What we know:
heterodimer, A: 5-stranded mixed sheet, 3-stranded antiparallel sheet, 12 helices, B: 5-stranded mixed sheet, elongated
Amino acid sequence: MTPDENQGPIEPFSVPKLSDSAEEKADWVELYALKDDDGNASFSDLLTALGISGTADAAEEDDDDAEDLPDEMSDDDRYEGAGEDAFLEITDRLESCGRTSAGYPFEVAGSAVVCRDTTLTSVYVFLLLLSRYGHKAGGADGAKIFEEVCAKAAESYLGALETHVRSYVFGFPRRIGPRGFAKALDALCAELGEGCRRSGSATSPDQKDAKLDIVAWRSFADRRQGKLIAFGQCATGADWKDKATELIPPESWCKLWMLDQPAVWPIRMFFVPHRINGNMWFETCVKGGILFDRCRIVQHSGLLSKDLQDRIAAWSKAAIAKNQR
Amino acid sequence: MGVGMAKKTTTTKTPQTAIASEPELLPVKDLYLDPKNPRLASSEVTMEDQDGILRILWRERAVNEIADSIAASGFWTHEMLFATQENGKWVVIEGNRRLAAVKLLRDPALAKRIGVASIPLMTSVDREKLAKLPVVKCTRESIWQYVGFKHVNGPQDWDSVAKAEYVARLHNDLKIDLEKIATTIGDRHETVKRMYRGLMVLKQAESEGVFDRKNCYSTRFAYSHLWTGLGYESVQEFLGLKSSGGYKPNPVPKAKVSNLGELMLWLYGDKKAGKKPVVRSQNPDLRNLVTVLRSAKGVAALRKGLPLTTSVDISKGDEQLLRESMVEGEAALRKAVSYVPTGYGPSKPSDLRDTAKTIRKLAESLDRAIYTAENDDT
């Protein structure tokens, strides 16, 4: 993932609209809680904001089937329905992050979302801010931190708590390891214990990472070939849908860039800091591989080092200071 | 909104008498938040748990906005509170959020105890100005028109479950006719009746043991899904409400109670059983559920646990699906043809030509299949 690509924020913090998705409204509720002095955002706050935006008319114009709605459905009814959708999405987030200490960082009390002491420094909030404000919101290194978090999530998913699971951040520019594509691929193959770089493969100056951001694998004690390998791509911006197919199929990638290929073709993973609507989930998995959205990443964020956690906290604090106050 | 507006909309003598009463200044310390406030309908709070009521109002009912306003502009004395005396205590039945704001503004220790950090700081002089508030002494029965106008159909909306609870209390406890409630508060859209029906259906589901609000999948009980859904004929028919209308307690016939349980499961899920609701949004999910309920095949599909979208297709039937698919296909092809002159040319990728060939083959295949089906009986 190259930070100079078009990865701007989806939308700055603003009044929510009725036509926004449940995911966007739920994001607004969480961001409002982060902004509120008491760390509190309620159903009433959301309805008030929807009312202020006054977008019911516009939503109705966009709604081809509006005539099918029961008679006399008022704007307030529509706002309330939209609010319910948002709070159902929040419940989903609570469940999807897993009931762990690293899980959903907000307390959900009835019709309100309340910050805890640890909310601001959580992985979830980092991903929320990254999703809404873009990778530069809290400093230049948002995209790189995201790749590191994703690499650890992939490790966790592959069972890192047992043994022999590793990951490698290949995305350009590389914080660790060789900067050039050829040397970085050599280093990756050495770590992986499979494949080696195709001798004489053409590498252009803008080769960077050939769209491969992270690699994770689960090997055996014998360190022989033939294991589960995952090629992952990360996308933080509003154009994440286009990114799902940017990484060419792993077997093509290996044939193109490696002299000896892995014995078993890698699987694909796709990482985004957003919440993906259920209607788009299947399609995104088909295009991008195993999808790690915000909540799945949080569910598998138990392996982060203290250093990485500190950088996440610092980035989030800077992003909030810049965008929310 | 001033009191005068309520006078214009009320026609009976009782509220005019109550509202015409002169407000008295009562000490804030002697005023109690009302546990029967319809906004608290889904919370289990008692008169003794004043801190609990305060906490809920602060967290969930945007009292902070009112506190900010009072701190900046003072308490608007024309916006008097209405209180009734119950068990020797003055219980505020209209103006609970304002009373909550004033209590918190006046007492930083209370604010701290409730967990409120952002209450505006006031000087002791300004705090003292809030020591007493204008209160109209009344009974719950005497101001229902005013409260109903203000919160059910007026400028300070409650959410739908609070409105429904209030209407149900008026109708069931005070025996006020639903039509009269609607007329009095200026409801021209049958909202009062529909909300009442929704609440009666909900209460019946709970009393029959086919639904438990605490077991909803979502942390919030989305009452609006139920009362909105009940506005559709197919839902009414599924619950056996079509002939009676359902505007009474226990409106669902015994024979349809199991259907009621299913409807509630599809609307709200079951946390204990780990079942998510089928309806995730009023649009399009609630509408899709309504479509499914029109067809026995669709209902059977949903009962088998098939996804809502699949159940919708099943309920529509192959004939309608064929028609929809062909109409959509024709529209898409017409659109594609219109883009060819400006969107395709000699230097463009040839995969579009391959796609065009595939479409032609599919169209021919469809034509043959339809011809064969037409002549199947001959």
